[in-house]
Amino acid sequence: MDLVNFFIQLLNSVQYGLLLFLLAAGLTLIFGIMGVVNLAHGSFYMLGAYLAYALSGAWDNLALAIAAGTVLSVAFGWLLEKLLFRHFYHRSHLDQVLLTFGLIYIFEELRSMLWGDDVHSVGVPAALDWSLQLTDTLSYPAYRLFMLAICTALALGLWLLISKTKLGMKIRAGAFNSDMAQALGINIVRLHSLVFAMGVALAALGGMLIAPLSSVYPHMGSQVLIMCFVVVVIGGIGSVRGALTAALLVGLVDTFGKVLLPQFASMLVYVLMALVLLYKPEGLFKQ
């Protein structure tokens, strides 16, 4: 592998890792603060992709579709938490798994009724429909660079929110000990609604950003859900810093594994997870 190819694959791995972080951050926050095992998290990613397809097709403007889709995702997450998930916080994990597993089927059926079972494409905006020429034969799509910049900005913004703000302090307190946080005056019910809505919005935003690159198709959330759980387990349940570190590691291993060891690519991420858990059973970072 020459230097240019290495640079391209490095960009791909960072972009993939940051996309995984957007998805896994919401998942780890929901589990860390609310104690909910949410198997339907991949469905929110699928929802975002289909929103990008529907809204960009209606308005012929992907940026506007992403902005409107993010607002709709926040509203949907807030409503779902208030009407359904709120009643399962103190139930067993088995009840939560059954609930969220059932939601997967409900969301898939609704998706089939609204948009059918065909594979759909989302067009790349004209302003980003070009490539950066690296050599005479190699180039890098501008949309991937745009996606990398957006994911980097969102990851930095989320880190600043969690680490440097009063709201972030409340979120960390709720993740560490929700009962004590409530006793100290934090409105834990409102915090749950906010965190769940934010987690849904991050997953949906990831789906909207990737839609022009991967197309939009049924059950697209299933595979990404598995990778999200891998990231959460490697990083440490409830740790946003761990989710970021683990997502970048998974991105590197998966991307370079497919290039250098294609015959073993499908198992390398799970080998990484096994090695981390062997030496750090709680993940790279504690909550």
N-end to C-end Cα span: 39 Å
The 3D shape can be described as globular
The class by helix and strand makeup works out as: mainly alpha
Number of helices: 11
Biggest sheet descriptor: 2 strands, antiparallel
Indicate the mean pLDDT: 88
Q: Into which percentage range does the β-strand content fall? A: under 5%
Helix content: over 70%
Biggest sheet, spatial arrangement of strands: 1-2
Q: Could you say how many structural domains there are in total?
A: 1
Contiguous low-pLDDT stretches (5 residues minimum) are none
The secondary-structure element order is HHHHEEHHHHHHH
Total beta strands? 2
Radius of gyration: 19 Å
Any overview of this molecule?
Helices cover 75% and strands 2% of the residues. It is mainly α and 287 residues long. It has a two-stranded antiparallel sheet with strand order 1-2.
Key features of this structure:
single chain, 287 residues, mainly alpha, two-stranded antiparallel sheet, globular
Helix and strand layout, with pairings?
Elements: H1 3-34, H2 41-59, H3 62-83, H4 93-115, E1 131-133, E2 139-141, H5 142-164, H6 166-176, H7 178-183, H8 188-214, H9 220-235, H10 240-260, H11 265-279
Antiparallel strand pairs: 1-2
Helix pairs in contact: 1-5, 1-6, 1-8, 1-9, 1-10, 2-3, 2-4, 2-8, 2-9, 3-8, 5-6, 9-10, 9-11, 10-11
Give a brief description:
This protein has 287 residues and is mostly helical. Helices cover 75% and strands 2% of the residues.
